[in-house]
C-alpha cells in the first residue's frame, strides 16, 4: 500500500483487516520479503521447530532484531535463516558470530528494544533501507508487518510454517496510551499500530520482525515488532521499536570487529 493509498484509507476509516498474521494470510509476493529473516536456536536441526523470532537484513552481513529476542536465547547459539518464506523448505542458515543488544534497552519498560546480529559469510540476499518518518506522517499511515508467529493467540503451538503479512494502521501515542488502551506504556522509543476494534496484529514468534512502510520508491523499515497486550484485541495495539534514531549505533556495531 502506497503513502497515498494509506492516507486515503486512513481518512476514510477503511482500515481493512483482511490480512491477519494471527488468523493466517500467507504472503504471495515472496520476492518482496527477501529481507525478512527468521532467528532460531542452532542446536535444533529443524528450522520450523528452531525459529523463535524474526528479523530484517540491512546488508549481506547485518541483521536487526529485538533485544528481548537475543536475551531470551541467553547462552544458546543462534542462527539467521534467510532466502525463504517457508521455514520447512529452502533457505540458508547463517551462523551468528556477534550479537549486540542496545545498551539502552530496559527490560522493565521495553524501551529501546533493538539488537544487531552479524553473520560472517556475508550471504544474506536481501537488504532493507531505513526511513526517517516524522510522527506527523507516521501517525496516519499503514504499515506492513510480517512473520512466522502464532496464528491463533489461544494456541501457542499454532506457529506458521509460511511467512504471513498484515496491513495495520498506525495510531498516535496519545490514542495508544489512553487508560482503556495501553495506559501510558508506549514510550518515546516506540510507536503503536492496529485497529481500534482489534484484528490484524503481530503475535508470539513475530517479535523482531519488520514494520515496513511501502512507498512508490520501494519499502522502508520504520520499526521492529516489540510487544503487545495480547494479540489482536480491541484497543490493545501492537507496539514497535523505532529504528531510525538508532542508526548511528547500528552502523557503529556493524563496522566493529
Features:
Thrombin, subunit H; 2 domains; six-stranded antiparallel beta barrel; 6 helices; alpha+beta; 257 residues; disordered N terminus; six-stranded antiparallel barrel
Task: Explain what this protein looks like in three dimensions.
The protein has 257 residues and is of the alpha+beta class. It folds into two domains: 3-29 and 129-244, Trypsin-like serine proteases (Thrombin, subunit H); 34-127 and 246-255, Beta Barrel (Thrombin, subunit H). The chain is 15% helix and 30% strand. It contains six helices and twelve strands. Mean pLDDT is 88; it is low at 1-20.
CATH topology of the largest domain: Thrombin, subunit H
Query: What kind of sheet is the major sheet?
Result: 6 strands, antiparallel, barrel
The CATH superfamily name of the largest domain is Trypsin-like serine proteases
Radius of gyration: 17 Å
Mean of all residue-level pLDDT scores: 88
How many helical stretches? 6
Shape: globular
Assign the structural class, choosing from mainly alpha, mainly beta, alpha/beta, alpha+beta, or little secondary structure.
alpha+beta
List unreliable stretches of 5+ residues.
Answer: 1-20
Strand content: 25-35%
| Quaternary structure annotation | single chain
Determine the fraction of residues in helical runs and give it as a percent range. 10-25%
Just give the CATH class of the largest domain.
Answer: Mainly Beta
Q: How many angstroms does the end-to-end distance come to?
A: 39 Å
- CATH-defined architecture of the largest domain: Beta Barrel
